[in-house]
Records
---
Amino acid sequence: MSSFQKKKSLVQALKCKTLTTLILGALAMEAQADGAFNVLGFLNDGTGTSNRFDSEPFFVSANGSVVVGTSINSLGNNEAYRWYNGTMTGLGFLNDGTGTSTSYFNTLERLSADGSVVVGTSGNSLGNNEAYRWYNGTMTGLGFLDKSLTGGNYVSAAESVSADGLVVAGRSQNSQGNYEAYRWYEGTMTGLGFLNDGTGTSTYYDSVVNDVSAYGSTVIGRSYNSQGNSEAYRWHDGTMTGLGFLNDGTGTSTSYFNTLER
């Protein structure tokens, strides 16, 4: 069996839910150029209260040296990890134990090209879901587009990061309670707005992020336009531009929608 076939077989096995259940979670592995595999291990070192051992890889850096994913830690919490040079490191949580929340969790979405920056979402000490950027051992909460919402239920999520790791993009609730795409850079979270400019029939405002360019100057995603249709957009230099639809109105269809991936 060729090296390519071995790697393909491994991917298929990891995707098999039945197999995952039988072995209490597929072991995270990194494929080497020579076809060998490194077992990445678990965050649970057996010293805590949890008897669950489970880890799963999600992304790999451009040169293949860094793997990120999630694993159950020794206290039974689902924690993001970064694996490099044989060591799996838990990224921790925004909840530092000083607030009212007793929930510890995080998720991850992307990593930078060299694997030095990881972004995702974690519960903070007040119980809010907050976007984070992890770099050099420190997890930093990115905040929210607005903190004037009543009830203190603030939400933000990181969904992409630039190749150089300096720009993070995602979505957060704004002051009207709408979910709005944002771009974070050097400590500032900026809302990208909506395709709905208020001139049409729709009163729905929502925008999400799919990806960000290598240097973070361009963001793509989707937003509801002024007619209430979900439309792909490109944001650059402060302007969100709708990409339109293949339906030009000349046929029999009255459906207008599009999706995009990257």
---
Amino acid sequence: MRYLELDSLLDQADLVITAEGSLDAQTPFGKVPTEVARRAKERGLPVIAFAGRLGEGVTDNLRYGIDAFSSIQSRPCSIEESMLKSAKWLTQATSDAMRLMAVGFQLKVKPSDSEPADYTSYSTQAHQLQYAFI
């Protein structure tokens, strides 16, 4: 991490995106995304992790500083194909995530006491958002 000057990069960041071949229950025990997330959280930064494969226990990572995760694959494929196309797929997944965030920025924040029965709430320290399943 020190050779990447990660801390210096994190000091300049608003959002952290990290990636790993396989994100699973083992990730918190020595894989790079967890250390990246730990350092990002020291600075109050949100963290998105992408992976070629989401394995068993992937949600465990939410307790270790990773705020959201997604696979870069849109369909099952061989490991060979995944490795060959990973750069393209990672670029596409990142672009998709940024578009989703842009939509989120356009949401109008509603007061937390106005939750209709058919809405689900999502709370953060900063806002109370509500969304409907249509």
---
Amino acid sequence: MTRPVLFHAALAALVFSTSMAGMNLVASAADTKAADPKVDELGQAGAQLNKEGKYDEAIQKFRELLKIDKENALALANRAASYDAEGKFQHAVIDCDYAIKYDKKCTIAYINRAWAWNELRNYKAALEDCNKALALEPNSSMAHVNRAHAENKLRQFKKSVDDCDKAIARHPDLVLAYLNRSHSYARLGQHKDALADCNKAIELQPTNAKCYNNRCFIYAKLGDNEKALADANKAIEINPKLGSAYLNRALLCARTGKPDDAKADLERAKQYGVSTSDNVIAAPKELGKEAEGKKNSK
């Protein structure tokens, strides 16, 4: 699936892309407490492995648990979190479907399914699941963040800002909320507010390439090509496979009279699954035409 450029959600990363690992919701060890000691042991082990980013191992633990208790909604929801983090969003949806079938009040199943729907670009379904999660748990920050992402994609920018405000009020260190809010601020033309949110996200998570990539966009909108280029370079330094950063740098190079560098970066961007049609920075006409020509020649 082609990733959205600059403001991921992931969202992201979340999400969830692998760079947003740990941002989707995982039930705590206490939540997985069960009558069967083996089920309890496997549930706690799987939840911990999820939090450590060891998703394949977590999936195996939940698979073993579900052989004992196939209707364990928390195990299914937690395995969905593993699948979300690995980019297996259809698998995540299926696990959440079963989790909700067995327990219609399983909040994390609605949240993790919303995450998957967002990644699959079914934003209305994501919005619906977030609303259900918030009806069950009104103070869920992750439900607000997921809903903010869906609202942003549906161009409901003020609602998106409001949901991020609520998430940040309860969890001031939630990087994804700042990134989502910065995107909505940018879409509303509030670039200084967007820049402040990007700066905060970088302060909280200085090794997150997407934070720099998002700030690159803000600097570009403010006309500071030098700082924008520096952030694109930093994003690529942190994550050499972040295609959107190459595309942003390509557009900046084209804008500043470096067509050869722009074309080279455009090729790298396409290698990692993005094209000029995904970007919100206006591409120079000649670069856009070349990208479309290559896209149509496939």
---
Amino acid sequence: MATRYENYGRKYYQKNRSKCIERNKIVQERYKKQWTDYKASLSCSTCGMSHPAVIDFHHMKKDDPEKQHVNSLIKNRRYAAAYKEVREKCIVLCANCHRIHHYDEEQMKKGAEAPFPTDSIKNQAAPGEP
């Protein structure tokens, strides 16, 4: 059973559909720009690369049951959750350092010594929210 407020909201939306859609579009574009600016302010914790196109977020606890992929959160427009995930559970790496880190992890599982050790990133602090 819908409440009085839900009925009002439904009627308002029906009367002002195009206005509501346009307003939501503007808000989402603003959030997307803020996220892009945030990524542009970050740099890789290993090599210092700072181009937003190559910034990745590496989860420090691989087996965390509450781990959420940042790219999925952004795709689903859950920007606040993405900021929280980055701030609390991730370190910033460029795409190259991120791939090297995972390659080294696989090599270590196999018992081989990592040719490019990335131990220095394990104790890095996560960046703060803008």
